[in-house]
Amino acid sequence: MKTEILDAVESKSLKEKIPYFEIGDVVDVRCRIREGEKERTQTFTGTVIARKGRGVNETFTVRRIVNNEGVERIFPLHSPNVLGVRAIRSGKTRRAKLYYLRERTGKAVKLAQRHSTHTVSK
Amino acid sequence: MAMLLGKKVGMTQVYNEAGELVPVTVILAGPCVVTQTKTVETDGYNAVQLGLDEVKPVRRKKPAIKHAEKANTTPKRFVREMRLAAGAEQQYQAGDSLTVSVFSEDKFVDVVGTSKGKGFAGVMKRHGFGGFPASHGTERKHRAPGSIASFASNRGHGGGPKRGKRMAGHMGNVRVTVKNHELVNIDEEKNLLVVKGSIPGAAGGYCIIRTAQKA
User: Fold this and answer.
1) Average pLDDT of A77-94?
2) CATH 2.40.30.10 intervals, chain B
3) N or C: which end of chain B has fewer CB within 10 A?
4) B180-183 — which CB contacts under 8 Å span 24+ positions?
């Protein structure tokens, strides 16, 4: 009863269509950024290394290397400020959390490609 | 002023128009039954008595059952009064049903609830005292209140602790009012009020929701 009601309240904040991507994919995340009065769209490209949480709290972590420095951003999947996620390259993985990539540098960061295109799309 | 009785469902988060995640409490409020109306002529003041939640009639005493019968309802588990201004006109009748739509014009509400009981608590937890250092020679009095009085308290001699001195004791399980909560959403279909922030009490606890008096 309790969870049902809370889920019903939460469900209004959820996105109807969730972009499809997998762990290990290289994705383009478009997010809305507000600078004072102005609004613009910023794209963050990197590898999805984790996806956690449930309902409105579901988030995914995107990692990329900028100037030899690892940068990770955690995006709330259902946030209105996350405008879209597009998988541009799939990665072959054997686990759900790719935290081992944090210890790797250079070429070792790149994952083998799983398939050339996303055949499944929701 | 509008008032309603409700039950705390729990907390969650929702996004607002600005795309910010807002912490909210969900309250299952109403529909409340007007079990009695009070007027200046008969009772000396104007009020409306509201009841929430069914209870088996066998579990209530006869006076309570008959009292509910006057309003053509069954006895209720949670009954509270909504006070009306002295000159206000009585707009409800016994037997009427109040739903969350009474708040349709309100932006802020006050919520009254019963806080979670903490049992017998010391002064650090109950009143936020600082306690004593963990080391530097402190022995057996790390969470002690310190001096509570002296021989010369309040001048004169042979004084005792001042009245109202904050000491250890039972904490929580008292009536608490939290004011000016933003009303994020009203769900008339499911009888839900979504209120920004936290409200006193455990999930499943009863609460009173009123239009904010100082918005």
Assistant:
1) 87
2) 1-31+99-129+166-215
3) C
4) B180/B108, B180/B109, B180/B110, B180/B212, B180/B214, B180/B215, B181/B25, B181/B108, B181/B109, B181/B110, B181/B111, B181/B212, B182/B107, B182/B108, B183/B103, B183/B106, B183/B107, B183/B108, B183/B109
The yes/no answer on whether domain B1-31+99-129+166-215 falls in CATH 3.40.309.10 is: no
Chain-chain contact of A80 with B24 (C-beta, under 8 angstroms): no
Closest CA to A11 of A52, A57, A55, A66: A55
Chain B interface includes A11 (CB < 8 A): no
A30 part of contact set with chain B, CB < 8 Å: no
Tens digit of pLDDT for each residue in A2-46? 888 888 888 888 888 888 888 988 889 999 888 888 888 889 999
CATH topology of domain B34-97: Double Stranded RNA Binding Domain (3.30.160)
Is residue A13 within 8 angstroms of chain B, CB to CB? yes
CB nearest B13 (choices: A5, A8, A56): A56
Q: Which of residues 25-44 of B touch A (CB under 8 A)?
A: 26, 28
Interval B83-121: pLDDT, tens: 887 776 777 888 788 888 888 888 899 999 999 999 999
pTM equals: 0.81
Give ipTM to 2 decimals: 0.74
Residue B62's H or E segment, with its range, is: helix B62-70
What three-state secondary structure class fits B179? strand
